[in-house]
Amino acid sequence: MAIAKAERLMNLALCLLGTRRPLSKRELRGSIEAYLEAGSDDSFNRMFERDKDDLRELGLVIETVENLDGDTGYLARRDSNRLPPITLDAEEAAALGLAAKVWQQARLAGAASGALQKLRAAGMPEAEDAYEVHSALEPRIPVHEAAFEPLMLACRDRRPVTFDYRKANSARAEQRQVEPWTLECWRGHWYLAGWDRERGAERVFRLSRITGKVRSRAGAFSAEVPDAVTVRETVESWAGETATRTARIRLRAGAGYPLRSRATAVRERGDGWDELEIPYGHGLDAWLVEFGPDVVVEEPADLRADVVDRLRAVAKD
After folding, report:
1. Phi, psi at residue 281, to the nearest 5°?
2. How many CB atoms lie within 10 A of CB 193?
3. Nearest CA-CA partner of 197 in 226, 228, 175, 172
4. pTM (2 decimals)?
């Protein structure tokens, strides 16, 4: 089905680009085999309107022209659909090369590499990459979760999805029905922000806790998608970026450097442990669990209880 539609769209695009005068629906139907095979006029009209909208969404500029007799015709002028010459200086070329490196560990690596090759073939300068040899930074975003690609496509196409999700303090996974908004990388972990249909509220899901396959569902979104800034703030808040309180923890000496970088105060205890004060927001318990026996929460009591619950859930698995 996908191949047949792609062939039909290609034939329609060639007809519209190859004509010097507007072509009517009747003429287009007689020129494209797939339209000739349409069972009825209504079926053809629906198919043609969908194809025309798809081509416009892909970037083809299609003009609608009415002649003196009132008939409607369509054409795509070549000058309106021709891209201007690509002109990039060395700094712009280096920036594109750096952006392509970001996705070297994801399945987008092939697309990024292919795009660079096409730009270079079109005349993009082979600028010296200032980030290649001397930089201590590796501009890469790791993507190890199998759920990343299907969720990325679902966010792009605005398709609802279902998946099994295991919360950090639960030993069993639960099925979630989600309208995906966007993916965000935070502290080396990927998060999905979206609308949880069963709970009727926005939620954030860590991709590493998604088990099994991500399955697409038919239908439109039922909730309004917020702007990108709001979604990013939601991800940061649920992942623990927004701090409203202060937590006091014991940290083994020589361990937990990411925690030390966030601490507002550090005191040596003299028994192989240090005492830290850390801004405390939603999600800190999940982060502290990652440091295992090197961290002990002293206060507040609810944070200590959350960390203990998470550790017990992990021990049961």
Report:
1. -135, 180
2. 25
3. 175
4. 0.47
Contact, 62 vs 55, CB < 8 A?
A: yes
Q: Which two tokens stand for residue 144?
A: 């190890």
Separation of first and last alpha carbons in the chain: 43
Residue carrying the six token digits 């069972």: 39
CA-based nearest residue to 222, from 247, 257, 198: 198
Question: According to the model, what pLDDT value does residue 221 have?
Answer: 92
Q: In terms of C-beta density within 10 A (0-12 exposed, 13-18 middle, 19 or more buried), how is residue 192 classed?
A: buried
**What does the pLDDT look like over 144-184, one tens digit per residue?**
788 888 998 899 889 999 999 987 667 788 999 999 998 88
Closest CA to 88 of 112, 109, 59, 118: 118
User: Which two three-digit tokens encode residue 39?
Assistant: 């069972």
What span, in angstroms and rounded, lies between the C-alpha atoms of 47 and 38? 8
Q: Give yes or no for a contact between 312 and 304, defined as CB atoms under 8 angstroms apart.
A: no
Q: Tell me the Ramachandran region of residue 211: left when phi exceeds 0, alpha when psi lies from -120 to 50, beta otherwise.
A: beta
- What phi and psi, each to the nearest 5 degrees, are found at residue 22? -60, 140
Nearby residues of 172 by Cβ (< 8 Å), 6 or more positions away: 166
Instruction: Please calculate the CA angle 81-3-49 and round it to the nearest 5 degrees.
Output: 55
Q: How far apart, in whole angstroms, are the C-alpha atoms of residue 22 and residue 153?
A: 36
Give me the residue label for tokens 């003196």.
68
On whether the CB atoms of residues 186 and 235 are closer than 8 A, the answer is yes
HEC per residue, 5-42: HHHHHHHHHHHHHHCCCCEEHHHHHHHCHHHHCCCCHH
Q: Percent of the chain, pLDDT > 70?
A: 76
C-alpha distances (whole Å) from 102 to each of 90, 105, 119, 121, 131 are: 19, 8, 18, 22, 12
Q: Are 141 and 108 within 8 A, CB to CB?
A: no
Write the Ramachandran bin of 112: left for phi over 0, alpha for psi from -120 to 50, otherwise beta.
alpha
Phi then psi dihedrals of residue 186, to 5 deg: -140, 120
